[in-house]
Amino acid sequence: MTHLVLGLVFAVLVLNLLTAAVVCARRGMSGNWLLVILLAGTTGAAAAAVLGVLAGEPRFIDVALVLTGTAAVTAAVRGLTIRTAVQAGGAR
């Protein structure tokens, strides 16, 4: 029963990733691209973690950690870029 539930969770997570990819492809880099990147990174991490539990492979947990770290670094860099741009505009 647990494997069935985890399989369904994995399927929903993969569907979420595909939806994020389609939305990003249709809208391009305008607007909420950071949200799509964060969603893809964290959803990918969750999917890798669930797959790791289902397959019994600890390597998938490493993949999940890398995806989570990538999403966190992307958000931090974007936040720093926005703050730097605001400060540069305010100094004029």
Explain what the structure shows.
- The chain is an all-alpha fold and 92 residues long.
- It is 88% helix and 0% strand.
- The protein has 3 helices and no strands.
- The protein has helices at residues 2-27, 33-55, 59-90.
**Main structural class:** mainly alpha
**Low-confidence runs of at least 5 consecutive residues:** none
The percent of residues in helical segments reads over 70%
Look at the structure and give the mean pLDDT: 81
Secondary-structure element pattern, one letter each: HHH
Shape: elongated
SSE topology sketch:
Elements: H1 2-27, H2 33-55, H3 59-90
Helix pairs in contact: 1-2, 2-3
Summarize the structure.
By secondary structure, the chain is an all-alpha fold.
List keywords for this structure.
92 residues; mainly alpha
